[in-house]
Amino acid sequence: MRAYISKLVISAALVFQLPALHGAGAGASPERKQKELEAAVVAAAAAPNADLTKLQCGNLVYAGNKSSICFADKFLGEVAHTTNLNVGLNFTPVKLDSDDVFNFPFCVWSGEDTFTLAKKDRDNLRKYLLNGGFILSSPGCSDPKWDAALRKELKLIFPEYNLVKIPMSHPIFSVVNPISQLTDKQGKTAFIEGLEINGRLVMVYSKDGLNDVSNAKGCCCCGGNMIMESILVNVNVFTYSLLY
């Protein structure tokens, strides 16, 4: 792999799935969600040694104890099924402000409501993406507050780069699954954006949603939008991130 993240091919990440990340149903209060996320962070910090034989996908914990409870990991199983990649099938919570984040070749980044990253979060995110890491991101339930916060943070961290619309001719739409068009759940044409640094795509982002919420346990996102081809896109993005 690239630069000092070369060790990510056999990632030092744990294969487990925290029940706390899936306990918040559609009627859960914000207070309950916050307590469950805090419990997940504590459990992640106390986890046993990792399985070093698999490529792992991190679920970023950022801005204190914020993280995703509405991003499905089903696409990891599809990657394992359709490619020869030895992939861990579950997300592993990882703190953005810790050195552990550099043990992951690929992370998902999602959440709800507004947020502000701490300096260590910002420093690590810049270092991670400049040195071989890759992030797949979209807000939980198409939350416009989260979308606005992410765009603000990216401009602070990468003032010299912008999120731009990715053309359908890009390899992320063909590397495994051929995708000719993106549609949202209303049947309208959708698009995804990307952050490119020095000619390398390092982040894929959708304001509508690549979270595949129908396969995310304990999450309904009844008011949110979603890209219907999200699993196919996510399989392609994960594979692309390791090949290019």
CATH uppermost class: Alpha Beta
Number of H/I helices: 5
Radius of gyration: 16 Å
Briefly note the structural class of the backbone.
alpha/beta
Low-confidence stretches: 1-28, 36-50
Strand order in space, largest sheet: 2-1-3-4-7-6-5
List the helices and strands and how they pair.
Layout: H1 30-45, E1 55-61, H2 74-82, E2 87-95, E3 106-109, H3 119-130, E4 134-137, H4 144-157, E5 163-165, E6 193-197, E7 200-205, H5 230-243
Parallel strand pairs: 1-2, 1-3, 3-4, 4-7
Antiparallel strand pairs: 5-6, 6-7
Helix pairs in contact: 2-5
Provide the descriptors you would attach to this structure in a database record:
16% strand; Rossmann fold; seven-stranded mixed sheet; alpha/beta; disordered N terminus; 27% helix; 7 strands; 244 residues
Task: Please describe what this structure looks like.
It is a single chain. By secondary structure, the protein is an alpha/beta fold. The protein has one domain (3-243): Rossmann fold (3-Layer(aba) Sandwich). Helix content is 27%, strand content 16%. The protein is built from 5 helices and 7 strands; from the N terminus they run H-E-H-E-E-H-E-H-E-E-E-H. The protein has helices at 30-45, 74-82, 119-130, 144-157, 230-243; strands at residues 55-61, 87-95, 106-109, 134-137, 163-165, 193-197, 200-205. Strands 2-1-3-4-7-6-5 form a 7-stranded mixed β-sheet, with helices on both faces. Helix 2 packs across helix 5. It is globular and about 40 Å long.
Brief overview:
It is built from 5 helices and 7 strands. It is of the alpha/beta class.
